[in-house]
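Example 9 (inverse folding). The structure is encoded as follows.
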């Protein structure tokens, strides 16, 4: 299992899924570091369909300069066969607004869904054919 640890994010890969826990407020440099680490983990998966699940409850938004960085990462992922993306966070209008500005809901074979609980998110990915060992972010989120 590959993993990347940073004070603002933790990324790892299981089977054909990249899992992430993000926290704090982000500046452009953090977004660039996340994008580079994410692409490094995702590159070996790019030959076939893969998925992504991210826990966002501890994420505190980002400066506007992160938006083009994340938009470019999303386009890269879709071009490299990302099929499903699940976001997990308690309802939060400002967070929802910024995430929607950066990440499309669906295009072609790609679909993003937002869930208030991790259980629902893991269930959806499993139903889409992306099973993984991790089913609880709590041990990773602290």
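The amino acid assigned to each position is listed next.
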């Amino acid at each position: 299992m590959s993993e990347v640890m940073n004070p603002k994010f933790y990324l790892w890969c299981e089977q054909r899924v990249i899992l992430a826990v993000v926290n704090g407020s982000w500046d452009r440099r953090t977004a660039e570091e996340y994008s580079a680490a994410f692409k490094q983990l995702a590159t070996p998966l790019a030959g076939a369909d893969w998925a992504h699940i991210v826990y966002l409850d501890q994420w505190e938004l980002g400066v506007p300069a992160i938006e083009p960085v994340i938009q470019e990462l999303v386009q890269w992922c879709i071009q490299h066969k990302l099929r499903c993306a699940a976001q997990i966070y308690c309802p939060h209008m400002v967070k929802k607004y910024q995430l929607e500005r950066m990440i499309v809901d669906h295009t072609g074979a790609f679909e993003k869904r937002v869930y208030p609980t991790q259980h629902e998110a893991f269930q959806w990915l499993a139903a889409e054919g992306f099973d993984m060992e991790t089913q609880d972010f709590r041990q990773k989120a602290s």
